[in-house]
Amino acid sequence: AENQRARIRHCFFAPSMEGIASRKLKIQSLLNTGSALEELDVYYQPLIDATTGHIVSFEALARWHNAELGFIPPPEFITAAEDGGQIVELGELIMQTACLQLAQWRRLAPALKISVNISPLQLLDPAFESMVANALQLAGLPPQALKLEVTEQLMLQSSDQVLHKLNSLQSQGIQLAIDDFGSGYASLNYLSSYPFELLKIDQSFIMDIMREERLLTLTRTITELAHSLGLKVVAEGVETTEIASLLQTLECDLMQGYLFSRPLPVAEVTSMLENGVPWPPNA
Ligand code: C2E
Ligand code: MG
Ligand code: MG
Ligand code: MG
């Protein structure tokens, strides 16, 4: 009976485990081929000034539709690239694409900025700073046009080397944002010792803020703390006007979410900027 149970368990679990592992291997092998990089696309989601209602920047969000696998969620292929050793190359492609695109859009909206998400492994790469400088130079952009978003995960590595690199980027005029704040384990201490200018409150806090008093208290407290340390606050995942008004009363600085816009393909952002469409539509 013991044997039989083991066999059943084996039959039941083995295929799905293998399925997950082989899908990851498949993604990694696709990343190694040039065609995977050709299929990669970048979408852009606006960040809205909570006071004026104007777009101040766009966040670049990688998209990958593969002929065989279909849409692959970004966290899945980013993790696969981190584990498979392709994240540095992939990250460079995304950085160059986003910078070149911003340079185009700045002809229509000169003050526009771009945020690019950065994996901790990219930051640990010795060539990271020159990769960024190169992408900016290629696009003819000043460092002030670029913001880098890093997650709390990075702080866990909290090496002097990382801190040194972040300080160096900041001193060049590149803005640093801590992403998904509240979702992980970052100590509040990091907020004051690292050169962040923006704090993005995790969307899980914002989405349930109307239903859970606890989340309202946390969001208010995080915002006050961030402001007292000189950081601006971004609320992610704003989906309703009720939440947007609440965040305005909390003096949140910037908002991002489906209420204003989903991440958009290049052509949609371009025509929006060209047509001078009043934005956001309901402001
Ligand atoms: P993130 O940087 O926190 O990006 C915000 C995510 O929330 C995006 O998902 C965006 O589409 C989604 N979002 C924005 N507003 C709303 C909303 O109102 N409601 C809901 N439900 N979702 C909203 P996406 O594009 O699937 O990206 C997921 C994560 O994958 C990102 O989280 C980021 O950590 C990572 N990622 C995406 N692109 C890149 C990239 O180019 N490089 C790196 N290293 N990571 C990336
Ligand atoms: Mg982000
Ligand atoms: Mg986030
Ligand atoms: Mg996230």
UniProtKB/TrEMBL annotation:
Ranges where the EAL domain occurs: 24-277
Species this protein is from: Marinobacterium stanieri
Highest rank taxon of the organism: Bacteria
Protein name: Diguanylate cyclase (GGDEF) domain-containing protein
